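Morning. Coffee machine broken again, so started the prediction first thing and wrote up yesterday's gels while waiting. Chain of 249 residues, entered below exactly as on the submission form.
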Amino acid sequence: MRLLCFFFPVFFLAWAELAPAQSNPELPYYGRKNTFGVLAAYSIDSSHILMGTAENRKLLNFGANYSRRLFQNRVVNWQYHAEILPVALESDPVSLTTVTLVSPPQTSPIPPETSIPVSACHSQSGTYTLTFQGVVYDYEYSETCSRRWTIGEGVSPIGFDWNFLPRRKIQPFLLAHGGYMYSTQPIPTTGAGSFNFTFDFGVGIELFRSKSKSVRADYRFHHISDHNTSTVNPGIDNGLFTLTYAFGR
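Came back before lunch.
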């Protein structure tokens, strides 16, 4: 009996110490009510993925984003998500053609050099003749390839973000946006528009360094189109890689 009276208090104290460790407390949520971020995005090429037909176009964007939590549970953190791109660069392949008059030695009716954005460019050279007002002109030409960068700006005010498993430090997510882009000259070809509509959707991974700071990497399908508001509308489809540093509370 004395032995039982001795071990019972010891057992009770030991159980009281171990009970908190054996319980499974709720894990914290890794997510913010309001999130701000700075981002950089790049695409090395374009192709006919869904809608666009302009090929060999590059994109380089720098900007910021904002997110507001709409709903959260153990499975998903649903957020309103908007982006602004004060620097939105688009690059077109350009064919640079140089024409030299061989004969007769007088003013040529053809401009000596032209630079035109094209879908694909191939370097070449050769000769040709042209009859103009009864005079035969002999020419030599060379065509070389380069790139033309066009600066613009973009805003995507309509967007959503779905982070899954919000209690983990590493979270997969889905995203989608809609907006517009304005450029200083028509893209992707002459005759297209300077004002274009944009939309994108994609998948990514977010790594939380703390509850307030994280790094996001995503890959998205990105489309640019003037919606037939200009003479031509080839459209641009890119696979765009985006890296974001996010913070908030």
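The radius of gyration is 30 Å. Going to sketch it on the whiteboard this afternoon.
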